[in-house]
Amino acid sequence: MVEIVPLPPLRRYVLRGDPAPLGALGLKVPPLLQAAAAGAVHVLALGPDEWWVMAEAPPAWPGGAWVTEVSAGRAGVSLAGPDAPLLLAEGCPLDLTHFPAGACTRTLFGKVEILLWRRGEALWHVETARSFAPHLAAHLAEARADLLA
Amino acid sequence: MRLPSGGRIDRGKPLRFTFDGRAYSGVAGDTLASALLANGVHLLGRSFKYHRPRGLLSAGAEEPNALVELDCGPGRREPNTRATMVPLVEGLTARSQNRFPSLRLDLAAAASLFGPLLPAGFYYKTFLGPGREAWHRRWEPLIRRMAGLGRAPEAPDPDRYAHRYAHCETLVIGAGRAGIAAALAAAEAGDRVILCDEQPELGGRRLLSAGEVPGLAALRANPRVTLLPRTTAFHYGLQNFVSLAEILDRPDGLRERLWQVRAVRVVLATGALERPLPFRDNDRPGVMLADAARAYAARWAVLPGRQAVLLAAHDSGYEAAFALQEAGARIAAILDLRAAPPLADTARARGIEVRAAHGIAATRGGVRVSGVLAAPLRPDGSPDAARATPISCDLVLMAGGWTPNLALFSQARGKLRWDAAADAFLPGEVAEALTCTGACATGRGPGHPVAAIAAGALTARHAFVDPQNDVTTRDIALAVQEGFRAIEHVKRYTTTGMATDQGKVGGMLGLATAAAASGRTVPETGHTTFRPPYTPVSFGTLAGRHRGPLFDPIRTPPSHEWAEARGAVFEPVGQWQRARAYPQAGEALREAVARECLAVRQQAGLLDASTLGKIEITGPDAAELLERCYVNAVHSLRPGRCRYALLLREDGFLFDDGVLARLAEDRFHLTTTTGGAAHVLHLLEDYAQTEFPELRAWLTSTTEHWGVAALQGPAAREMLAPLVRGCDLAALPHMAVTEAEVAGIPARLFRVSFTGEPGYEINVPSDRLPALWEALIDAGATPYGTDAMHVLRAEKGYVIVGQETDGTVTPLDLGLGWAIGKGKRDFIGKRSLARAEMQRPDRRQLVGLAPLDGRLPEEGAQLLATSGARVAEGHVTSAYASAALGKPIALGLLAGGRARHGETVQATRLDCPRQPLLVVPPVFWDPEGKRLHG
Question: Which of B128, B196, B377, B626 would be a feasible disulfide site paired with B228, CB 3.0-4.6 Å?
């Protein structure tokens, strides 16, 4: 059982270098490759000096933050259901049994680089660059159909 | 003949099938091979080279002879399928291969009579030397017609192929007794276990007995265990990355699945393969491996013959003979190569005649064996035909001993060591976290030494070592006689163990024969490498879902739907689909491009430039990082201004170009070429992380965040101005950037030009680009595509990286030396640029080329100083029909070109001898640049 749902529009920001501005948004600095949240604002630690902030509305960044907006450059899907790891195994080389809720990383699905974020036990956020999203969605949809048959 | 009882088949479920158009019936649980045997069909194919009649040798994946074509409807015709590995299904249609006009009467079998004309090395001998002509004219066409197995399918494959990555602590390959035991032990220790086996039913040789296979129930009940029948581990990669091909054959069209398994530990339980024995005409249908015959009787309740002769070099043959006897066959005789067969008395007690130190001088029969000539062995181990006696039989069993199946072990870079006691190569030093267990680790006990077997058959005729490749003992002896010593050379010269066999059937016997022929021991001779795949894998399995629409991502810019709706013509640029032109009704592509070019020159055109790479560089050291990488002076660039920026490789050659815009002291917006976007980001990231880790500067790709509308032309400002808020367009100079609101959308507004006309590149979030696009079209802009873009930039002498450059071109060659910051301490490629060789005046330099005959030059044409010259001095890099100038123009690279303006050079052409081109400056349009700054 796994459903594929398009992601809603999201504001996305890449903060580099200094994580201090996260505090101004009420966010804790999560450990590497994990996510943290303050209300509907999420932060994903994707690199040693790289934090992605995702929110439904633009957050109030303090001045001087080295932050770059990438909102419109990204798109993807949510996978909901217990069989999401099996579906992801069609194209993602990671061992997802060691990928607990709250974990996030850049990885691959088939021929596409993805950002994978396990938002909950059975809820996965999969996004890629805007122009790769149709390929990603079609690949997932075909694989899902075979999984369910 | 089907036995009335026994076997692991379901007699209650009959299945109909056809072979070569004749209808037969089998039962559920049959393979195609067992069902054909049950119907008394022994002749299943013709051999590769000599078209000799062939039947089943084995009952498993190593089958060299019974390669058939399956036809399951359009697109589902599959050649070279091993009949032993095909589970029978209702309606199966199979055909024999490599026969003309029919399997029974094959005209090319006459080739067998000419066997001596096609000896080992025939190909090499005719390819080279005086025979080469004859090879091309005569032999190759003939051999092409005769040889080759199977026909490739022509229709598209309608089925689907899946892929799965999997991880486990223990991967067990081979589900025989040893494999099941290893899987149970690992599962008990709490491991995630994957157990795979090529057979449809797990159990290995345990399937020779009736009943449930012990241990399987416990494995099935364990949720941490994945059992994969019909799954072949075909490739063993580094660090236990093993590829498995699972055959699903699901009715909904899911055919196979490629597994890529990363295992902490791998257990190889791949068993051992029985070897055939070499004697004259040992390839006649009805001659098969003893254990295979036993398997047909035990697993599929098929008696492969009524009267059998066993040729034994190993005790296991006796077990097979006894089993067949119990199943109702008569064992006419056991001929044992050994002088004192240990089981002779047991056999005699069963009423079977045993002749020790005997071999087979030859088999008798046509397309099925009808008897053998049993002969005592001479001291050299060869059968003494003069003293031979005939024995009638319809089945000959070969028990040649066992070769541990170490193909995957060898792929895993494990070393094989010769074990004299086991008379076999056994696993030696390992290079991965893997263990071998069961028969592949120990063999199945020694029999008559393989060296002695080979020595006794060196002079036998038609004694096949590798039936699939039609290689005989004599072929190998000939190769050795002709001087081949290294076993890899013998393999290639004779083709033994090549192709799909990879030594499974012929490997051990082949190298023992080479050893015997060269007077060396088996370990001295060594073994050949076992190359992947272990057994053939279909292309579909390897391609997976990446075919048709999913072959590769197709990337489209934000205006794609608009362009598609207006009938634009597209072209692929890497993975991108870009609009090439927007032809109007009745307009040819060429006309559309000319119209679009003129619209830009006379009014204003609109290009979707969203595919350009974009990188945001932030941080207090952002300028310093760029200063150290790009050739340009970056520190002196003021916020709000742009520079044409060049990036070199360390060798000094141009890598990419773009526009560098400074948005603030600590923030830059950099564009790259469409194709170079990812490469530039990686290169800069590499330098930032490894060369300059002390710099606080960070790179973020914004390529897809920004949609870019390039509005270019003398009327651009007039069109844009009414849409702009928050910026005075008239005050925005060429090569400047500002934030503004355009058509109500927050934008980064650049004044830049890639056409030579005044122009703007309006960056808005890509989801807003369609709205901006419509607004600009409504304002009167003419959409233009990449074709017009190419013409317009060439008219202005602007280069395209990858078109004017090919990895051997410096900025100086292109006349772009002005872009290099003066007095810079360093940048990538600076030192290389300073080399004398890079400054030579006769390097190929960018020039304009004006055709004197008024025709369009050919891109790629070589440039010659005179029409008779033989040495090219450059080439045409771009050539277009220029609508604005009303004539064709071209750019090119020409040795010392900048000093040769006014000279006429000759361009090569395919359609006439030479084309005269006048060398001119590379800027055809507005050389003073008055329009740009207007």
Answer: B196
Using a CB-CB cut-off of 8 Å, the residues of chain A touching B767 are 9, 72
CB-nearest partner of A130 from B167, B260, B766: B766
Nearest CB among A14, A74, A112 relative to B553 is that of A112
CATH code for the part of the protein at B10-117 = 3.10.20.440
Name the residue among A11, A29, A15, A140 with its Cα closest to residue A72: A11
Task: Count CB pairs under 8 A between chains A and B.
Answer: 111
**Which fold would CATH assign to domain B275-401?**
FAD/NAD(P)-binding domain (3.50.50)
CATH fold of B449-532 reads Arc Repressor Mutant, subunit A (1.10.10)
User: Pairing between strand B53-54 and B782-783?
Assistant: unpaired
Helices and strands in chain B: count of H runs, count of E runs: 27, 48
Distance from CA of B615 to the nearest CA of A (A): 10
In the prediction, which pLDDT does B856 show? Answer: 95
In terms of Cα–Cα distance, which of B795, B859, B791 is closest to B595?
Answer: B791
Q: Residue B552 and residue A111: Cβ atoms within 8 Å? A: yes
| Chain B residue at shortest CA distance from A96 | B167
- Mutation test of the interface with chain B: which of A74, A95, A135, choosing the one with the most B Cβ atoms within 10 A? A135
The closest alpha carbon to A121, from A79, A75, A60, A76, belongs to A79
CATH number of B605-792: 3.30.1360.120
Question: What is the pLDDT, as a whole number, of residue B146?
Answer: 61
B696 part of contact set with chain A, CB < 8 Å? yes
The average pLDDT across A3-19 equals 96
CATH 3.30.1360.120 fits B795-933, yes or no: yes
Residue in B559, B617, B704 to test binding to A, most A beta-carbons within 10 Å: B704
Per-residue pLDDT of B737-761, as tens digits, reads 999 999 999 999 999 999 999 999 9
- Whether cis (ω within 30° of 0) applies to the bond prior to A62 is no
Contact between chains at A73 and B616 (C-beta distance less than 8 A): no
In this structure, what token pair is assigned to residue B769? 């680009």
B707 contacts A17? CB cut-off 8 A: no
At residue B101, the pLDDT reads 67
**Neighbour-count burial of B832, counting CB atoms closer than 10 A to its CB (0-12 exposed, 13-18 middle, 19+ buried):** middle
pLDDT of B257-305, one tens digit each?
A: 999 999 999 999 999 999 999 999 999 999 999 999 999 999 999 999 9
pTM of this prediction exceeds 0.80: yes
**Common-topology check for domains B275-401 and B795-933:** no
Residues of B within 8 A of A142 (CB-CB) are 160, 545, 550
For residue A79, pLDDT over 60 is answered with yes
Residue B128 has pLDDT above 70, yes or no: no
- B296-329 pLDDT, tens digit per residue, is 999 999 999 999 999 999 999 999 999 999 999 9
Q: What is the CATH number of domain B159-269+402-446?
A: 3.50.50.60
Q: Where along chain A do its domains lie?
A: 3-7+72-148, 11-71
Mutate to test the interface with B, among A50, A88, A146 (most CBs of B within 10 A): A146
B167 vs A contacts (CB less than 8 Å) = 95, 97
Give the separation between CA B843 and CA B837, rounded to whole angstroms. Answer: 9
Q: Two tokens at B668? A: 């830059």
| Domain residue limits, chain B | 10-117, 159-269+402-446, 275-401, 449-532, 605-792, 795-933
The yes or no reply on domain A3-7+72-148 and CATH 3.30.1360.120 is yes
pLDDT at B134 over 80: no
Q: Do A111 and B553 touch (CB under 8 A)?
A: yes
- Which tokens belong to B603? 């009014």
Residues 241-280 of B with CB under 8 A from A: 250, 252, 254, 260, 262
